[in-house]
Amino acid sequence: MKAAIEEAMQGADEGGIPIGSVLVVDGQIVGRGHNQRIQKSSAILHGEMDALENAGRLGASEYRLATMYTTLSPCHMCSGAILLYEIPRVVIAENRTFMGAEDLLRSNGIELEVLDLQECVDLMAAFVAARPDIWNEDIGEE
Known about the structure:
- This protein is an alpha/beta fold.
- It has seven helices and five strands.
- The protein has helices spanning about 1-15, 45-55, 60-65, 75-85, 100-105, 120-130, 130-140, and strands at about 20-25, 30-35, 65-70, 90, 110-115.
- A five-stranded mixed β-sheet has the order 2-1-3-4-5.
């Protein structure tokens, strides 16, 4: 999770939304990323999607051994990618700021662990307070 938090901080330093993720296979980080919707004017580069993109092409068996670490509960898009690649485990730093598609993941047999890290709650609270317009855009609200 430390690496995912580092990614979130990098996103914040770049003027973006402070959400980071890493994909781990056999104890090794194979992909890391952060939300880059602002920086790259992207519709889809959430932290989890960026981590998957940066991991490159992996074999199906590698995804099935992976754990996705993310600083915020995954949205439906990112949860869909987790389901598509059959990533069996997701570790979430916090879900107070945003409750993603956790029920969808659980109902499809994905193991979830929510750490409820105050550091990540505080990071998101500061961002949401400073940039509610960008946050609402990111989660699809007006």
